[in-house]
Each structure stands twice: as structure tokens, then as C-alpha cells.
Amino acid sequence: MVLAELGGSISRALQQMSNATVIDEKVLNDCLNDITRALLQSDVQFKLVRDMQTNIKHIVNLDDLAAGHNKRRIIQQAVFNELCKILDPGKPSFTPKKGKTSVVMFVGLQGSGKTTTCTKYAYYHQKKGWKPALVCADTFRAGAFDQLKQNATKAKIPFYGSYMESDPVKIAVEGVERFKEENCDLIIVDTSGRHKQETALFEEMRQVSEATKPDLVIFVMDSSIGQAAFDQAQAFKQSVAVGAVIVTKMDGHAKGGGALSAVAATKSPVIFIGTGEHMDEFEVFDVKPFVSRLLGMGDWSGFMDKIQEVVPMDQQPELLQKLSEGNFTLRIMYEQFQKILKMGPISQVFSMLPGFGAELMPKGQLDSSNPKLMNESRIMRIARGAGRQIREVMEMMEEYKRLAKIWSKMKGLKIPKKGEMSALSRNMNAQHMSKVLPPQMLKQIGGMGGLQNLMKQMGSAKDMMGMGGLFGGGGD
Ligand SMILES: Nc1nc2c(ncn2[C@@H]2O[C@H](COP(=O)(O)OP(=O)(O)OP(=O)(O)O)[C@@H](O)[C@H]2O)c(=O)[nH]1
Question: Total domain count for the chain?
Fold first, then answer.
């Protein structure tokens, strides 16, 4: 996941603390120092980090905590709350509505990823049934129109622009008019990238904004600038009515934590983050689920949304039957990975599961449930054929063995029929699951209580026959 390093460091600090037999002042201080170091490395402002440390110490008064209280959970919750506080601007952004025309204008520094992000934003909404369209009002950078045209064509999104016209205001107005007539509900206007000092380009941006009257202006910002994001966002906000921010290149930059917190400090809501160059490497940014994933605590609502997007409901009963018989083959793993891949980049999906890191699980193959059949020469052949390293194929086999072991213990797991899941059978399945899950993951979820809670949450996704149904989550 994005900021995997930061998340990993914080989780490790919390884990080390929970490994201690007694959590005293020293153990707590060590843990907070580790978290502080990780946040500073991510370029989060010193004052914010120091305040966070003070607040946690204030909340977690070890002497006051009655014996028997789960100190680790209290501390973890305090860390969670404080991180949310740092990242939450406390103000939601304007949200366009499907079926009702909205004009959204993108602004940002040169090379921040604006043009790429316009298409990602359009594609994201198109997948959800919107009718987006793209207007290229960037007449400054040669090749900007071609880039937008190429992206838009790939995603099958209508676009408007001109090679001849040099007035961005004229193009923007014509494009918006055209797409209003065509009943598009999300008209996206891409503008030229500019530097803070370029007053002429800032004036041009103001004029485009005045002429097209956007419902929302989105400021696109590259995460690599870290806490300097504060000044940049402020400069743009002074010229146009920035209503939301998208932070890009979160995949490659350790300073992403700093960028996100700095933007929050300007009271501008971050609505999406860019996590790669591809069209679907784009994630909704929501503070609580983001922090939850950062701490390895998962994001069930996001996971359920993803599942509902891709899993064909009619194919689920057959799969559940096979799994409940303990019959987990490489083919099943392959097919499930294929489905998961459709949900977006795999690391993104797995980071939504509590206890999972963002480690990539390689795509695998075939029908045998006997890993012994995979001898050395076969592994070499597969590696050659797939253009992969032998090490990667071997890692995949290890992963398969690990999953197969889990599923073999699943034998006898009750498969609920639609709507017949009772609290009792959910508890029974929770007990079954608690024996199957790796102890580390169970601990991360919050033990037996946490697992039962989780199943309840999953169960609230009614009519789900995906993972929710599998783990015992039909409606009561
Ligand atoms: N790794 C990564 N690269 C990105 C991301 N978003 C954009 N890029 C890359 O950043 C580079 C610049 O992106 P553009 O979309 O051309 O930037 P721009 O802001 O439109 O550029 P100007 O029109 O010059 O202002 C391209 O190589 C993109 O592929 C992201 O989230 N992650």
C-alpha cells in the first residue's frame, strides 16, 4: 500500500510494545519514539508529531489504567485517533452527483500529474456509470492535447481540444458547452501547469475559471514535495477557489505522509491519491480507512465495495462448496487472483485486509492440489514461459502451500444459505476461523472478540456471497 514503509514502522513499533510482558512508561516511550521517527522520516511537520506524542501520553495514563485493561488496544486506538486528527482537514469537499452536470477544473504545478489525473478521475467515474468528458485547455505545453487525447481514447472517454486555437479560455468554454449539450454529467477541464511565480499563467487560470464557472476546482499536487505542499496549496487557493486536492505519485515517495498532513493543514480535503502511472492506480482518500490500512488494521467497507464490483454472484456457491470440502487447488487460487486483479492493483486490495501487508502475491497456475508435482524442471519451465525469475515461481508455490494449508483446515466450515445466517452459526464459524488463521493475523484483528466483530461487519453487506458469505456473513 502507499506509505508502506511508514505503516510498517508504526505497526512494528506497536507490535514490539505488545510483545512486552508489562507495558510501563519506558515501553510506551520507546514505542512513541519509534512512531515519531517514522513520521518525521515521512516529512510530517515536527510540531504536529510532537503534539501527537504529547496528546497520546496525556490520553494513555498508564497509572490510571485499571489492571486488566487492554493497554495495547488503548494505545493503538490513541495512535489511530491522533493520526486521523493530523490528516483530517475537518471539511468535506463538494461532491458531483451522477446524472447532474458538474464542471470540474484541474489546476496544478507543471508536471504534477494533472493530465494523467484528469483521465484517472474520469475513468474512475465512468466505471461507476457516469458520463464523463475531458476538455484540454492546456495550450501552453506542446503535446498536452495529444497526451490527453491518447489517454481519453484508451479509456473511451469523449474529449475536446484544438491544435490551432491558442486561447485556453475559448477552448474551455467551447468544450464545456459541447459536453453540456451531449448531457455529460462530469465535464473535466485540464489547464496548463504553472509555477508559483508565473503571474501570467495564474491570470489565465483565473480567466478559465471565470468563464467556465466550475462547480469544483481540484488542485493536483506531487507528493514528493512533502511538507512544502502547504505553501503550494495556499498559493493556488489564493488565486482560484480550490475545493479539493489530489495528491499524486504516492507510490514512490517517502514524503507522502508530510504532503498529506500539510494539505490537511490548509483545510483542503484530499479526495483521491495517485498511486502509479496507470489509469486504475488511483484511490479514494478517506482519512479513517486510510489510517486503518496504514496501521495494518484493514478497511472492510472498502474491501466489500471492491468485491461487489467484480465477483459474479452466481459463481460463488460452487466455489464455497469446494473450499468447504478443503479442496483448494492452484486453479482456484489462479481464478481468485484473476478476480482480485480486476479489483485494481493487488497490493491495494490486500492492504484492505487486517493483518495483511501490501506484499504482492504473484499470479499462479493450475489444477493440481499436490504441490509435489511441481518439481525443479517444471518450475524452471514455468518461470521461462512466464518470463519470471525462478525465485518468483518458488515464492508463489510457497504462498499456495500456505493458503492450501489454511483452506484444508476450513473443512467443515458452515456455508450459510442466503439469509439464513444466525448469530449462533456466526459464532461457530468465528471459532472455526480462529483456529485456522495465523496467530499473528488473529492478534492483529483483535483476537476472538475482534474476529466476531469483523464477521458481523462483513455480514452487514447483505446478500453478499463473496468473502462475507464465506466467513459467515449473511443477514440474521
Ligand atoms: N508514479 C506515478 N507517476 C505519475 C502519477 N501521476 C502522474 N504520473 C507521471 O508523472 C508525469 C507527469 O504527468 P502529467 O500528467 O504529464 O503532468 P501534468 O501536470 O499534466 O504536466 P503539465 O501539463 O506539464 O503541467 C507522467 O510521466 C505521469 O505518468 C502517479 O500517481 N504515480
Answer: 3
C-alpha to C-alpha distance for 21 and 19, rounded to whole angstroms: 6
Report CA(219)–ligand 1 centroid distance (Å): 14
Instruction: Check whether residue 409 and residue 306 sit in a common domain.
Output: yes
Which residue bears the cell 491558442?
166
Q: Is residue 92 part of a domain?
A: no
The answer to whether the CB of 251 is under 6 A from ligand 1 is yes
Q: Does residue 407 lie in a domain region?
A: yes
Q: Is 274 in the pocket of ligand 1 (CB under 6 A)?
A: yes
Gap from CA of 192 to ligand 1 centroid (Å): 13
Give SS3 for 219.
strand
Domain match, 141 and 254 both: yes
- CB 253 near ligand 1, within 6 Å: no
Site to probe by mutation for ligand 1, drawn from 3, 116, 139 as the one with most ligand atoms within 8 Å of Cβ, is 116
Selection from 51, 54, 34, 30 nearest residue 42 by Cα: 34
Task: Tell me whether residue 370 is in a domain.
Answer: yes
Whether residues 137 and 273 share a domain: the answer is yes
The residue among 430 and 391 whose pLDDT is bigger is 391
In this structure, the answer to whether residues 26 and 150 fall within a common structural domain is: no
Helix, coil or strand: residue 81: helix
Helix (H/G/I), strand (E/B), else coil: 96: coil
pLDDT (mean) for 173-178:
96
Is the minimum distance from the CB of 224 to ligand 1 under 6 angstroms?
Answer: no
Q: Would the pLDDT of 157 be above 90?
A: yes
Cα–Cα dist 64/338, whole Å: 51
Model pLDDT for residues 204-235, shown as the tens digit of each residue: 889 999 999 999 999 999 998 888 889 888 88
Q: 394: exposed, middle or buried (C-beta count within 10 Å: 0-12, 13-18, 19+)?
A: middle
Question: For 340-374, how does the pLDDT look when each residue is reduced to its tens digit (9 = 90+)?
Answer: 555 555 555 556 655 554 333 333 334 455 555 66
Q: Which structural domain range is residue 196 located in?
A: 102-294
The answer, yes or no, to whether any atom of ligand 1 lies below 6 A from the CB of 120, is no
Q: Between these two residues, 409 and 378, which has the higher pLDDT value?
A: 378
Residues 310 and 381 both lie in one domain: yes
Among the candidates 247, 273, 294, a domain finishes at 294
Residues 127 and 248 in one domain: yes
73: domain CATH number? 1.20.120.140
The model carries a pTM of 0.69
**Do residue 310 and residue 429 come from a single domain?**
yes
| CATH code (residue 164) | 3.40.50.300
On average, the pLDDT of the chain sits at 77
- Do residues 76 and 117 share a domain? no
ipTM: 0.96
Q: Which residues contact 256 (CB under 8 A, 6 or more apart)?
A: 2, 3, 6, 42, 223, 247, 250, 273
Is the minimum distance from the CB of 444 to ligand 1 under 6 angstroms? no
Q: Which is nearest to 298 in space by CA: 451, 425, 435? A: 451
